[in-house]
Peptidase C39 (Candidatus Eisenbergiella intestinigallinarum), 203 residues
Amino acid sequence: MKNLLICQSSEYDCGPVSLINGIRYLFEREEIFPDLIKFIMLYCMDTYNSEGELCKRGTSAAAMNFITNWLNHFSETRRFPIHCEFLSGEDVVVEKGSRIYEALNEGAAVVLHVFLEVAHYVLLTGIEGDKAILFDPYYEEEGTPEFDAEYYTEGIFFINDQPKRANRAVTLERLNRFTKDYYEMGEYECREAVIMYNTSLKK
């Protein structure tokens, strides 16, 4: 049975939660090893904020790159059918012919670094027309200023009936912008992504 996708527990764990959501999206609950979840949480949230507080600057690109390699090693040693690829810089675009676009059409999930007032990670699970389908792990309730601002922002659409797949649709035009508003990727030096495949289901 596939699990529901989950929201982050703190202000800082969007990275590991999006990776775990990738696992939950791609695999049945009965297939998922508990040590897989344990070590994703262990290796993420590796940064310090300006006050010297551990974890309070989220997860670094270096940690995401490390996790990518660790998951591929895990696949080999535990015979778990996952394959991951880390992309950065100019390779991180979501348009026809791009690596991410093609991966999504092949059934992959993609952990993507975007902005949501601050740096943030979400999980892309598909492409529908000119929109990326994604799950944002940052839970917000109607009536809060942040929710209302996002709700009325052009190019963002809320999805309320796909808890195992998505809670947002965002236009590709918005996603690919070089600015740092809601669900925009920013300049190339800000960009990173982890493509995640269930190799037993790869199209």
In short: The longest helix spans residues 61-78.
